[in-house]
From TrEMBL:
<protein>
    <submittedName>
        <fullName>Protein kinase-like domain superfamily</fullName>
    </submittedName>
</protein>
<keyword id="KW-0808">Transferase</keyword>
<dbReference type="GO" id="GO:0007165">
    <property type="term" value="P:signal transduction"/>
</dbReference>
<dbReference type="InterPro" id="IPR052751">
    <property type="entry name" value="Plant_MAPKKK"/>
</dbReference>
<dbReference type="InterPro" id="IPR000719">
    <property type="entry name" value="Prot_kinase_dom"/>
</dbReference>
<dbReference type="Pfam" id="PF00069">
    <property type="entry name" value="Pkinase"/>
</dbReference>
<dbReference type="InterPro" id="IPR011009">
    <property type="entry name" value="Kinase-like_dom_sf"/>
</dbReference>
<dbReference type="GO" id="GO:0004672">
    <property type="term" value="F:protein kinase activity"/>
</dbReference>
<dbReference type="GO" id="GO:0005524">
    <property type="term" value="F:ATP binding"/>
</dbReference>
<feature type="domain" description="Protein kinase">
    <location>
        <begin position="17"/>
        <end position="266"/>
    </location>
</feature>
<keyword id="KW-0418">Kinase</keyword>
């Protein structure tokens, strides 16, 4: 048996595990939902052996932040399988899906600003932990933000950062073939002659894009380049607009995650939705969660 964290519910009994469904598939790996004889669930992430070093790095990073409340937890070791030739790890299962599926489930509706604020704060908590120890996520996007049942009464979910296969570790080189960020989450300087600058500001820019996406903005590609600009037509608070402006600053002028955790958009107490539009959006969240669980 293996433990994925301090909680006794995060124990993997590999001898009785059975695969139930494919959760997602990427360029270098795929993830399946697994259940054991006691109906405990976990996620199994597998890669072909030629990409073993990616999964090894991912496991190292999750172990470095073991028991951090904003980083997904994983098994003690990398497992090797002969037929087919694969390696795999076990991770805690995100029963509420991921942020991408949540946004897609809203069917074009934007998210109430109070929930966007809470989401941004939790992402920043994860980024601050990574950055303060010399790591850069390098692939922050909604599909890599996993959702778990909330421990706070009245809140829909808590979140954790996942997918560290593209991440940069401290005092290490960077394998460009594994760079994972999609163009719409990359800053404009990434498309210049110097290429992508791998430092914490890359994650800060991507965070701004995630916030834009939750607020209903549409990414529009530059006519002559791969660069995207986010077009937001919805009215948002001055605090939210300033937060997005700071995330979108040119390198090297973006603030740190620690600084943004004290930004007014993150620290202000936002009231519950009061307009009819926001009330309707809030009511729509509940059926969206049901869709995610059935997906």
């Amino acid at each position: 048996m293996e433990k994925l964290g301090r909680d006794d519910e995060l124990i993997v009994d590999e001898s009785s595990l059975k695969s139930f469904s494919l959760l997602c598939q990427g360029n270098f790996s795929y993830v399946c939902l697994m259940k054991d004889s006691k109906s405990r669930r976990c996620a199994k992430k597998s890669s072909p052996m030629q990409h073993k070093q990616i999964l090894e790095k991912e496991l190292r990073i999750m172990h470095r932040f073991r028991d951090h409340h904003r980083i997904v937890q994983a098994s003690n070791k990398l497992h090797i399988q002969i037929k087919p030739s694969e390696c795999y790890i076990y991770m805690e299962y995100a029963s509420e899906g991921n942020l991408h599926k949540f946004i897609s489930g809203l069917e074009g509706k934007s998210v109430p600003e109070s929930l966007v604020q809470r989401t941004a704060r939790m992402i920043l908590e994860g980024l601050e932990a990574l950055h303060s120890h010399g790591y850069v996520h390098c692939n922050l996007r909604p599909s890599n933000v996993l959702l778990f049942p909330s421990k706070t009464p009245g809140e829909p979910w808590d979140l954790k950062l996942a997918d560290f296969g593209s991440s940069k570790e401290p005092d290490s080189g960077y394998g460009w073939m594994y760079f994972g960020t999609a163009p719409k989450y990359m800053p404009i300087e990434s498309f210049g002659p110097k290429g992508v600058i791998i430092d914490p500001s890359l994650d800060i820019y991507a965070l701004g894009c995630v916030v834009y996406e939750m607020l209903g903005a549409i990414p529009i590609q530059d006519y002559f380049d791969e660069y995207y600009e986010w077009n937001l037509r919805r009215h948002i608070s001055p605090e939210a607009r300033d937060f997005l402006s700071r995330c979108s600053n040119m390198h090297p002028h973006r603030p740190t995650a620690a600084y943004l955790l004290n930004h007014p958009f993150i620290t202000q107490i936002l009231p519950s939705p009061t307009t009819e539009d926001n009330k309707e959006i809030s009511r729509s969240l509940i059926p969206s969660f049901s869709k995610l669980l059935l997906a």
